[in-house]
Design goal:
9 helices, ten-stranded mixed sheet, 22% strand, TIM Barrel, globular, alpha/beta
Length: 300
């Protein structure tokens, strides 16, 4: 594993397989030791029964795989700004307990799609909900990581910075997904230039534009400027996890649950390692790419 201050490679497991053992098999095929959890057997982590969760935690422990983050449904495409806030509060409470059991603090969130509110009211609702959730997260030792995806602040650097200022809590930080700009109609690199100092977790995906919508590709082969984005993060001093989310088979927002692509996941992971070795490390003396991540000053 990379030393403190380095970068760990991981992946959102259900992109490879619906079942946990299949997810871990894909991670192991890459020589990686970390996974990001979203669903197990098609069930969101917070919705697993206690027995099923305990069994999953045992499998992870016996496998020696750490959990880099959990990808929640809080504020996502299915929960607009007028949805039942109790769903999000309850999910966070469950994930606080389960995150502690799994040894992870990061919970992926979004900032609530607009159900037809004015921009002012949409902002008020999104900020108010995330301020309340950040307060709960801080009490429970969690950090909410807001993704540049669905919601009020999803596609605007100005709004992300406004959100961080308005919530004003160390329990809210940013997650940057390299490929979401292609799907949502903006250039990801200029956004990242504005927010890089606040990014603590990264999703790595790539895509190219087409008339029928984004076509997802392995990292470095699309139009998302993945190498440029990752170099910018390294230059900004990023330390944490780069987690692949290939979207080659599973796209939850398109209601395609229960599928996965082991081979595509592994190909995407290998592409990330190659990209880090060939296009990122040469720009930074003292940066060393290992099978499972990146270390600084050549130390593991």
């Amino acid at each position: 594993m990379p030393a403190a201050g380095g970068i760990t490679f991981a992946g959102i497991g259900d992109e490879a397989a619906p079942d946990l053992r299949g997810q871990l098999a894909a991670v192991s095929a890459l020589g990686w030791h970390a996974v990001e959890l979203r669903t197990v057997d098609g069930v969101a982590l917070a919705d697993l029964g206690d027995r099923e969760f305990d069994a999953a935690a045992c499998v992870l422990a016996s496998h020696g795989t750490t959990v880099a983050a959990v990808a929640s449904r809080i504020g996502n495409w299915a929960r607009p700004a007028d949805s039942d806030f109790g769903l999000d509060a309850s999910e966070l409470d469950v994930l606080a307990r389960r995150g502690a059991a799994l040894g992870t603090r990061f919970v992926r969130v979004m900032s609530y799609p607009n159900p037809g509110l004015t921009d002012r009211d949409w902002r008020r609702a999104a900020v108010g909900r995330l301020r309340a959730l950040a307060g709960r997260a801080a009490e429970r030792g969690l950090v909410l990581v807001h993704e540049n995806c669905a919601g009020w602040a999803g596609s605007s650097a100005d709004r992300m910075l406004d959100l961080l200022d308005a919530v004003d809590s160390p329990a809210l930080r940013l997650l940057f997904d390299t490929g979401n700009g292609i799907a949502h109609g903006y250039d990801p690199y200029p956004m990242l230039e504005r927010i890089a100092a606040h990014v603590v977790h990264v999703h790595v995906k790539d895509a190219r534009r087409s008339g029928a919508g984004p076509v997802y590709t392995t990292p470095g082969t699309g139009q998302a400027r993945v190498a440029d984005c990752l170099r910018l993060l390294v230059a900004a001093g990023f330390a944490g996890t780069w987690s692949i989310e290939p979207h080659l088979a599973l796209r939850p927002h398109e209601a395609r649950p229960g599928t996965g692509d082991h081979d595509g996941f592994v190909a995407s992971g290998r592409a990330l390692v190659a990209l880090a070795r060939d296009q990122i490390a040469p720009h930074f003396p003292g940066l060393t790419v290992h099978e499972a991540g990146i270390s600084r000053d050549g130390s593991r």
